[in-house]
User: Fold this.
Amino acid sequence: MTTTQTLGYDSLWDLMARMTGDEKHDSASTSTLDVIWTLYDRVLDIPTHDHPDRDRFYLSKGHGPTAYYATLAAKGLLDLEALDGFASFDSPLGHHPDRRLIDAVEISSGSLGHGLALAIGATVGRVLRGNDGRSFVLMGDGELDEGSVHEAIALAGRLELGRLTAVVVDNRSSLLGWDGGIASRFTVEGWEAAVVDGRDHDALAAALSKPHPDRPKVVVAEVRR
Amino acid sequence: MTLLGTRPLTQRDAFNQTLLELMDEDPRVVAVLAVIGHSRLAEAGSLERHPGRVVDVGIREQTQIGVAGGLALEGLRPIVHGYAPFLIERPFEQIKLSLTHQGLGAVLVSVGGSYDASKEGRTHLSPEDVSLVSTLPGWEVHAPTTGAEVVDVLRSVVPGTGSAYIRLSGPEATQSLVEAPGTVTELQRGGNGSPTVLALGPAIEPTLRAAEGLDVTVLGTITPNPIDAAGLRAGLSGHDLLLVEPWLAGTSTSRVADVLADRPMRYHAHGVTDPEMSHYGSPAEHAAFHGLDEPGIRHRIEEVLAISKIGCGGLHR
Assistant:
């Protein structure tokens, strides 16, 4: 990854504090922190935010985006100064990301259940254009409650989208839970699946980097709230 | 224009044929289906000629719009086709957030608008679609009345990158009466001060017949949004303006009032007022129920003519 400035993982907490004004962070942000960091630090190939062949990252679970913004800033994809005005009227950074305000954000999100279908369409589009870049989409286990997600899980499996990887951050937010485990909801539709510790960077990087050319893959990243 | 011998080119025929031509011409064009329309596109040859560019997601209408948004993210031109209530109403949040809020364009092409599917009952009726789409910024809405107009509309919107809703809906008109998509065309001229009747989409032909012999000006457009302000202003003949639209009554009133804000006008809305009417039957019977057949429209025009003679109080030209 080519960036103008980079900061390390240890900087993320300070960067998030610049947005929230204190060192406390909502569970939605902290639950995704290690997954997003590992993706940008060790998995995604993003030479520049507008490089046509870059890997795409779609944050479907737009809630608690300070971890996302902090990671983008640490990787030089977002001006550090932008963090200070978080959620103010003229800030590009709000409680849910807006792709029209931040160049490095691939999709606007917030309402749950939109990102996977968008990622499927974009992945199909890249195949049609002869582009073999990868697509990663992050959802939460609570987001899986949305029926639209299950429409999309089935479709991605049928389309055998081997360039598509979904990450489900499982912090037990789903009110009714998932009997049989989250992974089974995907594997029954033809997905490859892995379940890893959502705080273990090595395990996340290994699961997210391993090619799965013939079918989509879900990585269930388990974290404690 | 004809297809298959002397059979007139229907709106759906025109859509399927033109879509294939556009796919041949523009590598950005991708058809996104949710089962509806699949066999017709196959019959037209799209699947055989462009198998990767017809994406059928199954009966997953929310995902259908989301996939279209993803395709647009990558610079492709999604043409999304389906039944009006399932293309517009069911996935309305996806249209709002997975297309509009993302700043992405797509062309949505429906069949079965208003009461075309009258025998199917309320679940398949969607007179609200034009109104719903028009709440979103940046969307054009077209309601062609003939196959030839469908060709014109598709060829005007698909080459771009913006968002358009094209509503293929009956009854098929016997001829095209408007000059071009996006314009308001004068079809009958009334006397100075007479009411103006603006007919939209499939209401144009029955309105023109209904107004025969009455002292009213009749204007027509197949583009409810945006309204051709210049054409509308040029065509007005008095202070009373009756809008006849074969979808939810009043859908276009606020947009028309916006472009005539500097004119003293009195507006009259005529359209579907009771979507929960709980009847089956034919589209013609539904049109009659809503007063959108020729006798119903004529009756409404006569009411407006009577009101216009009362005067507008403080209104003056």
Remarks:
- Chain A is about 35% helix and 15% strand.
- Residues 27-43 of chain A form the longest helix (17 residues).
- The domain at 9-222 of chain A is CATH 3.40.50.970 (Rossmann fold).
